[in-house]
Amino acid sequence: MEREQSAFQALYPQAVIELRVGSSRQAISDLFGATCDLAVVGRELEPEERGAAVRGGLQLEGYRFARDAIAVIVHPLNPLENIAIDDLRGIFRGEISRWSSLGGSDQPIVPVVLPPGSGISESLIRQVLGNEPPLARAARVASDSLAVERVIEDPNAIGYVSMPWAKRGAKVLRVASLTGLPYWNPDPETVYKGDYPLTRYFNLFVRPEGAKLASGFVTFVTSRDGQDLVHRAGLVPTAVPVRFVRRSPMLGSHPTTGDRSSTP
């Protein structure tokens, strides 16, 4: 969001936007309480949040502006290449506790988890754990960058990060929705096509009666220029068409925003 904020204020120098960093749950709570004009959330609204809005007579408008992958990372020397969601579920539930259960060495698995209120953790809990919190003993870290550092330091660690952080030195695993189905790397094309099974949306939520500045910022983020900043950040734009330029089968592809969507 910092890039979008800077670009928006460069276009409109009179605009003043204050960014506050917090969990997705806190951002929604602040929006409900009218202590902020716009909430940037890395997931969808939870059913209880929708219910609270209805009970309180609150009107919200939501705008998807980016799609992300939940990338699963391990130590660079870990021999594991692929993992299915059911095995990932077993790890974070504490049911699979040693790498030998997955064909590796007889060493303990060390899960690395991000803050429970973050959008990425809440998305993982919903998609992998069936809305149940992780039960395995885990190393807790405060950010994606610290998750990468922790996994690189520990040969027995496994963690999850946002797609832009996936290739910062850790080994990225291919993921399948079920054992026996195809495994997919988390990259912009597999996320865009829906092949990669662990994804989440970034949303902008505003109150219709809120500040006009918030609506103007939404318009910018979902515009061509704003969406270009989204894909430069390593995420997949969702408010404009995207086409993929394939470089080679080994190197994969990268997205560009365009007038029409096409994939080879």
SSE succession: HHEHEEHEHEHEEEHEHHEEE
Q: Let me know the number of strands.
A: 12
Q: Measured on Cα atoms, how large is the radius of gyration? A: 19 Å
Strand content: 15-25%
Blueprint (SSEs and pairs):
Layout: H1 2-11, H2 24-32, E1 38-41, H3 47-55, E2 61-74, E3 82-84, H4 85-93, E4 110-113, H5 119-128, E5 139-140, H6 144-153, E6 157-162, E7 171-172, E8 174-176, H7 188-193, E9 199-206, H8 212-221, H9 224-232, E10 236-237, E11 242-248, E12 252-257
Parallel strand pairs: 3-8, 4-5, 4-6
Antiparallel strand pairs: 1-9, 2-6, 2-7, 2-9, 2-10, 11-12
Keywords:
264 residues, alpha/beta, D-Maltodextrin-Binding Protein, domain 2, 2 domains, eight-stranded mixed beta sheet, two-stranded parallel sheet, 12 strands, 23% strand, disordered C terminus
What does this structure look like?
The strands form 3 sheets. Strands 1, 2, 4, 5, 6, 7, 9 and 10 form an 8-stranded mixed sheet that branches. The protein has helices spanning about 1-10, 25-30, 45-55, 85-95, 120-130, 145-155, 190-195, 210-220, 225-230; strands at about 40, 60-75, 80-85, 110-115, 140, 155-160, 170, 175, 200-205, 235, 240-250, 250-255. The protein contains 9 helices and 12 strands. The model is unreliable at about 245-264 (pLDDT under 50). Strand 11 (about 240-250) and strand 12 (about 250-255) form a beta hairpin. The chain is of the alpha/beta class and about 260 residues long. The chain folds into 2 domains: about 1-65 and about 200-255, D-Maltodextrin-Binding Protein, domain 2 (3-Layer(aba) Sandwich); about 70-195, Periplasmic binding protein-like II (D-Maltodextrin-Binding Protein, domain 2, 3-Layer(aba) Sandwich), CATH 3.40.190.10. The protein is about 30% helix and about 25% strand.
